[in-house]
Amino acid sequence: MSYIIGLDCGTSGTKTVLFDEAGAVIASATIEYPMYQPKNGYAEQEPADWANAMISTIKSVMSQSGVKKEDVKGIGISGQMHGLVMLDRDNNVLRRCIIWCDQRTAAEVEQMDRTVGRDRLVEITANPALTGWTAAKILWVKNNEPEIYDKVAHILLPKDYLRLILTGEYATEVSDASGMQLLDVPNRRWSDELLSAFEIDKSWLGKVCESCEVTGTLTKAMADELGMCESTVVVGGAGDNAAAAVGTGVVEDGKAFTTIGTSGVVFAHTSKLSIDKQGRVHTCCAAVPNTWHVMGVTQGAGLSLKWFRDNFCTSEKETAKLVGTDEYCLMDKAAEQVPVGANRLLYLPYLMGERTPHLDPDARGVFFGLSAIHTRRDMLRAVMEGVTYSLRDCVEVFREMNVSVSDMMACGGGGSSPLWRSMLADLYNCDVKTAASKEGPALGAAILASVGAGLYVSVQEACGAIVRTDKVQTPNAANVPEYERYYQLYREIYPALKESFSKLAKL
User: Fold this and answer.
1) For the whole model, what pTM was predicted?
2) In the annotation, is 192 catalytic?
3) Nearby residues of 477 by Cβ (< 8 Å), 6 or more positions away
């Protein structure tokens, strides 16, 4: 039996999982680490924390499992995207990594638009300039910390810094590199035009590979440290969402997944490049060679339900403690008692502004149609439906881009709710499934490594052998047209309130 390691370098911690070649979990270990916020809107982490967590968790799974080191054939790395790791000539880290959720770069985004032009930037990188992405962070250091910028010899993404620790190689892969805004996304290579415009030295950047491509093997020192073989391959890996797509089998046209976490993500695979010129969704290279993915984001998905729980569901929280169950299960049961449409009550989930499809930081949450007949249960149902309408908005943008969705996986905390899955199935009008494995990005990274190690011929073949479906929710034929009526009304509310949101922000 052969074994593969999948490693996921997240924001809260690094998780390492040892899988057998059929995708079964043999051992798992997680180590958490802090995030630093030196100023409002700043977010940073220490790359040494990731490295220490990686080394410790790999050692842990190797010792837990008792697997022979010769049988571990490869390592795949998934990671938080957009982070900026700057190294000097001796590979010393020059400053803490500015991570994905940092928002200090508004001036640099304007600089990128002035220098290149918004439309040209979208043509090359498939996305408008964004504050959280890497290029703007590089320019921020250049503009604000010139003494550090002058020492830069290498720029890496978080997971690619871990690759350097493992293999001594400077490399990245297309899915994660797509989030730097320095990659020519249609052609899957660094953009000389952008590097010249931003005056960034191309030699600082790692070699661009495909996600299942072998980027190196373990150094002797690292193999000895980890108790593994020098011949163990390390593949390109993927950014976290691209790895999650592989881990849930979203590797062919028509397949997509919906994640309902704090925010909501709808992610679809496509073999044909498609770019939304309005910038409402992200287009990036997929972890499957020579394919892409599109991704829509709704800001206040699970956040809306958590907000409602914290402010209005005291009784469910108290009952859940008494009977030893989850308050969200009790909230599901309460919402199930309310009919489709929540008795003519609609909710806009814009508690934190909105990304897809409105690109409006001033948008705010709304209950529309509230009357004296409505109860707390109606409001709860409306919140869940409103989030689902917002996720449907993402799919509508995909359809405008000729990206079809006929097979949907559900992930994240919200995906564990049978009621929410039924809403998704009815509003997408297709089956909504859950994956048997909950390992997501770590499994995706391991699948990529299994291809690089030669255990499978392709990513699609590996997913066909490894990824299994758990639950399947089919659309309710009676609910589909009923939800459609409410969804079309939901779509009219934001345009009617757009100017009022702007005025409210200025008060």
Assistant:
1) 0.93
2) no
3) none
